[in-house]
């Protein structure tokens, strides 16, 4: 996705397809959720976001906003080792022209934080008959603060 002009670029079968996204409303809930995720150094769960909003909106509104932000490519979803879903702001959106989420996620077993390691790219070779549509790599262990 190119974040500047809000178009998706799908490179399936070497063909580029652009899908223009409709512009979402800038509600107070959306603005606050984007700000919370932008300021966080680690990925946040729905409950983390709800607690930081201090009753601004209900849980259903948070899910709707998160779904829309995912669709717009402003955030990405991480399913951790314990099957808990977390969300993180796409920090590369402001600096890279081509949008991707092919980086490693690190889940700390002690403090239970999930961190995007944006500069660590997984490498793998698949047989020719396979096509990749999504990459989700998670590693668990102890983060630097817990060692």
State the low-pLDDT regions, or none. Answer: 1-22
> What is the number of independent domains?
1
> Structural class of the helices, strands and pairings?
alpha+beta
- For the record, give the distance between the C-alpha atoms at the N and C termini, rounded to a whole number: 37 Å
What is this entry, summarized?
With about 150 residues, this protein is of the alpha+beta class. It contains three helices and eight strands.
Description:
By secondary structure, the chain is an alpha+beta fold. The protein has a single domain (25-141), classed as Arc Repressor Mutant, subunit A, CATH 1.10.10.10. The chain is 23% helix and 23% strand. The chain contains three helices and eight strands. The chain has helices at 28-39, 46-53, 59-72, and strands spanning 7-10, 17-20, 44-45, 75-79, 85-89, 104-108, 114-117, 137-141. A three-stranded antiparallel beta sheet has the order 3-5-4. A three-stranded mixed beta sheet has the order 7-6-8, with no helix packed on it. Strand 6 (104-108) and strand 7 (114-117) form a beta hairpin. Helix 1 (28-39) crosses helix 3 (59-72). It is globular, with a radius of gyration of 16 Å. The termini are far apart. The model is unreliable at 1-22 (pLDDT under 50).
Give structural attributes.
147 residues; alpha+beta; three-stranded antiparallel sheet; globular; disordered N terminus
């Amino acid at each position: 996705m190119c974040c500047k002009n809000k178009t998706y670029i799908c490179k399936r079968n070497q063909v580029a397809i652009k899908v223009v996204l409709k512009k979402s409303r800038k509600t107070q809930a959306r603005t606050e959720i984007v700000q919370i995720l932008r300021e966080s150094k680690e990925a946040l769960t729905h409950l983390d976001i709800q607690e930081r909003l201090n009753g601004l909106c209900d849980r259903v509104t948070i899910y709707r906003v998160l779904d829309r932000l995912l669709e717009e490519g402003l955030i990405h979803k991480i399913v951790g080792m314990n099957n808990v879903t977390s969300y993180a702001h796409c920090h590369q959106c402001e600096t890279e022209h081509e949008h991707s989420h092919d980086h490693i996620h690190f889940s700390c077993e002690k403090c239970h934080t999930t961190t995007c390691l944006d500069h660590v790219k997984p490498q793998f070779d698949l047989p020719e008959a396979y096509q990749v549509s999504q990459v989700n790599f998670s590693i668990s262990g102890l983060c630097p603060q817990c060692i």
